[in-house]
Amino acid sequence: MSVVVANVFSSFGGAIDFIFNPRIGPGGVEVGGLSDVLSLLWTHVWISVIALAASVAVALPFGVWFGHRGSGEGLAVAIGNAGRAIPELGLIAIVAAFIGVGVFNLTIALLVLGIPPILTNTFVGIRQVDRDAVEAARGIGMTEWEVIRKVELPLAVPTIMAGVRTGAINIIATATIAPLVGVVTLGDYIINGSNFGPEGVLAGAILVALLALAFELVLSGVQRLLTPRGIRLEREAARSTA
Prior knowledge:
By secondary structure, the protein is mainly α. The chain contains 10 helices and 2 strands. The longest helix is centred in the first third of the chain and has 36 residues. The chain is elongated and about 75 Å long. The two termini are 40 Å apart.
């Protein structure tokens, strides 16, 4: 058992060293080091941000509209189920075969994976808003757009942001196979392990996991900022009495 633990710590130590210090890899060229890691990390981040922003821009309006009208539930559920069933590698391969390789085409593939959870959660969040609150807003003369903007959206923020966070994780995880379509991200360390060695593969996995955690923390902060104070206080009170 102690040997196994020692090997695990040794592997992690080698991966951390790979991140900060360049070395000569199995292919005979210099690999790793903070400069190389930051370059790949930056590519991974901005591609993920663009794809997530595009997913929100496409899915949020449709989810809000269908949820506000109370129609399209079957479509939202079907898209959500389809998104969970789509194999990421297969989607990337289809996009590469029929559209081509490159950043734009990769973004399309990531966009498709980000839409389902955002659309489904937005629809569900809007529909779960208290109908009495919606009718009261209409009763005081609010337009339908004002009802959406001032009542439904603020109250649905926690559910909507849960979908955005799920979509972000889907996108970040799938971006690791971006090197297959000519966009070099942190996934290069994982996919091309023969060039970077086992330390490079583990370093890539650690970096992707940390990036996903960072996105989760940032989006959690955004959710807190967007959630009305009354709802935050109500949830905190419920947790304290649980």
